[in-house]
Amino acid sequence: MSLQHPWTEGELTELAHLKSVNEQLPEDSPRALLSVRLSILTDDTTSPVRQELDLWRKANDDRVRVVGVARDLNVSATKVPPWKRKELGGWLNDRSPEFDVLMFWKLDRFVRRILDLQVIINWCQEYGKNLKSLHDPIDLSSAMGRTIASLIAGMAEIEAANTGIRVASLWQHAKKQDAWIIGRPSYGYTTEKDKSGKIRLVIAPLGHRVLRWAYGAALRGVSASKMAKILNRAGIPGANGGKWTSTTLLIQLRNPAIKGLRVEVAGRSGRSRSKEVLDTKGNPIKVAQPILTRNEFDELQSALDRASRTNENPWTPGATKFLGVIVCRDCKGNYTVRTSTSRGVRYKYLRCRACGGKGTNPEELYAALVEAVLEELGHHPVEYREYARGAEKRDQLRQLETSIKYYMEGLAPGGRFDRGGFAKETAEETLQSLLNQMDDIDPESTKDRWVLTYGGRTYQQLWEDGGMEAMSRDLIRAGITFEVGYNDSNEVEADLLIPEDVRERLAIREDAFKTSP
């Protein structure tokens, strides 16, 4: 129960009665998950207590067994879709075989964005679930409910398509104009109206000073990391209002927009994140006065290239590989890469970020981890988690039970087959065949459930293709750690800790809501 909105003694008594009635329903009754949501707990809102009690009453009226209640309080339906809420999201993503119908008090207590509703409707149709609202005509089990749901989903699809077309069209038009029509100005610029009323880009004084200073510092060989520290000590806010980092600073210094040109996002890295937009004649489009001239910008890029110690690979030389996997045996803190200089020679070592201690050669520790993982898990098959519905087997089982009952009654004294001869012999053979078919049906196959299917490769083959980065992602997902410590002789010791349910954890899960906006 929510401590923010406590239940009265009378409400708890009523809840206990409703639960008692619900428990008397047959085991094969449809199973319901109740969803209770509220963004702000105030006296003038529909309290979660009222929602839950109403849902229990509705469940008893509809003769569905309640298997759980997902309570998500102080959660905005506009900002957080159902599958990302703490409690409801857990049911939708991992416990969907446990319920047949999702019940909520009112549509706006469930979703506020029509596209979210479309995603949920598609998910219900894919996984064989039903939606029921107490105060809205939404019920996927009825013809009218399906029609309404289809209309809503269709409207959402049209809305999404039209919005996408309008935005794409506006951007295609805007990026060819020298006036500023749409989008957020790059760092160092702001917008204002000119005498004709058009919105133009103008230089922002603070951003101008920061970029010009960084330009000079880069030419003097100052690293982006040191520049970021200087800016933070000076109290100068970053491009997004937060603190500067070497990455956020490099994004601005690599951006051709500081030449006063129109740009568009072209990648994710600082080096190639933005590129110039060209007009119909292939020339850059000038939208503002430059902070750096073309020659200055080229000089800056050369200086940054010389100072850069990164490369285009996912793992940079200075990055910590298996971050979150290699941990300290004593404090469970992460081991991270450190750099030191001795007698003019730079070298790297791994050490616990929290408690320090002796450093360890990174490559040797990485190699030991990879070897241990491949030995323990490399031969395991790559498996995929899939949703298996038991409806077909349940129907088959019910048909067998009906047929068996028919023949057993017919073979009983006085029954239609109790005459001896060919008819009785045939009926007995048929009955035995039906009983054998029933024995062959695995009870688990009649349930909705998650199953693991073989993907045709082993994890060693998967990691050989994806490299250490893919292995690291899988180890983190599975909760596998490599605990590092030191023995009495100050020698490195490491243990690979694998959870008992590693098979289920490692299984690759399809994102059922990947089409969500």
Explain what you see:
The chain has helices at residues 9-23, 48-62, 86-94, 107-110, 114-127, 143-174, 205-219, 224-233, 246-253, 294-307, 362-377, 391-411, 421-440, 459-478, 502-506; strands at 31-38, 65-73, 101-104, 130-133, 189-193, 199-203, 263-265, 274-276, 326-328, 335-342, 345-352, 356-360, 381-388, 449-458, 481-486, 492-497, 508-509. A four-stranded parallel sheet has the order 2-1-3-4, with helices on both faces. Helix 5 (114-127) packs across helix 6 (143-174) and helix 12 (391-411) packs antiparallel against helix 13 (421-440). Among the domains are: 9-157, Rossmann fold (3-Layer(aba) Sandwich); 189-307, Alpha-Beta Complex (Hect, E3 ligase catalytic domain fold), CATH 3.90.1750; 390-447. Helix content is 42%, strand content 19%. It is α/β, with parallel strands linked by helices and 517 residues long. A hairpin with a 5-residue loop joins strand 5 (189-193) and strand 6 (199-203).
By CATH, the architecture of the domain at 9-157 is named 3-Layer(aba) Sandwich
CATH topology of the domain at 9-157: Rossmann fold
Look at the helices and sheets and give the structural class: alpha/beta
Biggest beta-sheet profile: 4 strands, parallel
CATH superfamily of the domain at 9-157: Resolvase, N-terminal catalytic domain
Query: Overall 3D geometry?
Result: extended
Average pLDDT metric = 82
Number of helices: 15
In terms of per-residue confidence, which ranges show pLDDT below 50 for 5 or more consecutive residues?
A: 309-317
Total E-strand runs: 17
Helix % is: 40-55%
- The top-level CATH class of the domain at 9-157 is Alpha Beta
* Rg result: 32 Å
- Which strand-content bin applies to the residues? 15-25%
| Distance, first to last CA | 32 Å
Q: Could you give the order of strands across the largest sheet?
A: 2-1-3-4
